[in-house]
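Morning. Coffee machine broken again, so started the prediction first thing and wrote up yesterday's gels while waiting. Chain of 338 residues, entered below exactly as on the submission form.
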Amino acid sequence: MSKKAAVIKGDGVGPELVNSMLRVVEAAGTNVEFITCEAGAQWWEEHGGDSLIPPETWDILGSTDAAFKGPTTTPGGAGSPRSVAVSIRQKFNLYANVRPIKSFPNTSKPLGDVDFVCVREGTEGLYFGKEVQLTDDVFIAIRKITRPACRNVACYAFEEAARRGWKSVVAIHKSNILKQTCGTFLEEVAKVSKDYPGIELEEYHIDNIAQQLIKNPQIFNRKVLLSTNLFMDILSEECSALVGSIGLIYSANIGDDYSMFEPAHGSAPKYAGLDKVNPVATVLAGAWLLDYLGEKENSNAIFEATEKVISEGKYVTYDLGGSARSSEMVDAIIRKLR
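Came back before lunch.
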């Protein structure tokens, strides 16, 4: 029986990029059935309500084996709904947000070759989304840290290192200031590390590692970087710059029973409809989804075809130093598949 995946095309450049991803996975010969559904700021502006995700979409998400989410816009300001990604992560307990950070051949590498993985807790921290007004002048945000969530994401990080044959997990925190929340995170990571005697646990303060990633990023090669929600959200964006373009960074949100795949970048509304944005992050997030649903060969074929197109440099988008349109880069990837 074929697997099913929900597809949210998203806002801004989302729909065109997701259509490109679907073209590529179909060219690879996937048997996955993709079911399109609505979510995002554009849908919400038309329909209103307290969520960016309509009830019908929740039904589709609940009846599929995985989800793919194109870039979606999250409205700002008090009273506006939480983001599509945060809503889905919390609903399905997708506790591990994972971004591989790996240089591609023949691309600009601002600080040299890098190869590591960022793992971010995906369901709580400051993304718990609870803020309180104490007086007219005083507001506080609540950072929720639970032992089970810390344990889940730590287990994922050590399993990822073991899967890759890597020897180190780097826990990133600020426990000298956030003694209870970061302290609890560190305690749980240390407990999990005891089950992986061949993998070293390193610790860095968030401010120090932000500097080290610019000064000497290679010291983190072949390591898994692990942190709480907001810290790793910011750090993984910094890490994206190390490969030359966030348009190359694909990501997954992984839970025990469900996962959602997405490009790491935003919806870039100013580029919508211009056929300009790098499709790689979206295409490779789609390839990762195929792998998750058991189509390893199709997934590998898409990764290999994409790497070839990037390394040849003939059909690449502006952010990679080329002049190809987004659709032309996708056409080149499909030609390599065939």
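The radius of gyration is 20 Å. Going to sketch it on the whiteboard this afternoon.
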